[in-house]
Specification:
Layout lengths: L1 E5 L5 H11 L6 E7 L5 H8 L4 E3 L8 H14 L4 E4 L8 H6 L4 E5 L14 H10 L3 E8 L9 E8 L6 H24 L3 E4 L2 E4 L3
Parallel strand pairs: 1-2, 1-4, 2-3, 4-5
Antiparallel strand pairs: 5-6, 6-7, 8-9
Helix pairs in contact: 1-6, 5-6
This protein binds 5-O-phosphono-beta-D-ribofuranosylamine.
5-O-phosphono-beta-D-ribofuranosylamine binds next to α1 and β5.
Length: 206
């Protein structure tokens, strides 16, 4: 499979996927990394690994339609089969979702549907989990639909909230799980084990 990563930040999830490919855990190829942020760490990581790195920002287009077309053209030109959103802070339009129906997945650092939705990203998520007094948090890999953090979950993993956890300590333990679960999800797609039935994602046996 040809993977396309869309991301806005530091790129630790991209680095984890690169590591998984290098170790042979997954056989997909990273076809392109696209970021809306010109100096995002994720683009630097891609370049250092000779992965095509593209800066594409809606701000540089006269309309969202033109941006969407450019994004689609880029994905098509790199023959992307599966799109991974790895900390991509822009909304994916219904135009792209239609073109890539059931082929766009996102990773979220909490157990959805809790602590998700518009504006819930990065440290805000872990802050909210701690403030609520939750005993568990976790990671969700889910399909992307027209609403933020709303598509059906594909994989979820729990992370215990420990007594005395800080924002940093919880975020670090959640991130560690993110780095394995995203690879696991890609592997399920490679093995064609992911079946969508309404809101239910069925993981078929290998
Ligand atoms: C991760 O926490 C991911 O769950 C969220 O954005 C963050 C991206 O981190 N969607 P990184 O850029 O991959 O390090």
């Amino acid at each position: 499979m040809q993977l396309g990563v869309l991301a806005s930040g530091r790129g630790s999830n991209l680095a984890a996927i690169i590591g998984s490919i290098k170790r042979g855990r997954i056989s997909s190829k990273l076809a392109v990394v696209i970021s809306n942020v010109a100096d995002a760490g994720v683009l630097g990581i891609a370049r250092r690994h000779d992965i095509p790195a593209v800066h594409l920002s809606p701000k540089e287009f006269d309309s969202s339609t033109l941006f969407d077309q450019a994004l689609l053209d880029t994905l098509n030109s790199y023959e992307v089969d599966l799109i991974l959103l790895a900390g991509y802070l822009k909304k994916i339009s219904s135009f792209i979702i239609r073109e890539y129906r059931d082929r766009i997945i996102n990773i979220h650092p909490a157990l959805l549907p809790a602590f998700g939705g518009k504006g819930m990203y990065g440290q805000k998520v872990h802050r909210a989990v701690l403030d609520y007094g939750c005993k568990v948090s976790g990671v969700t890999v889910h399909f992307v639909d027209e609403s933020y953090d709303n598509g059906p979950p594909i994989l979820q993993k729990c992370v215990r909230v420990e007594e005395g956890d800080t924002l940093e300590s919880l975020a670090a333990r959640v991130l560690e799980q993110e780095h394995t679960i995203f690879t696991e999800a890609v592997k399920l797609f490679e093995e064609k084990r992911v079946e969508v039935n309404g809101r239910k994602v069925i993981i078929n046996d290998a």
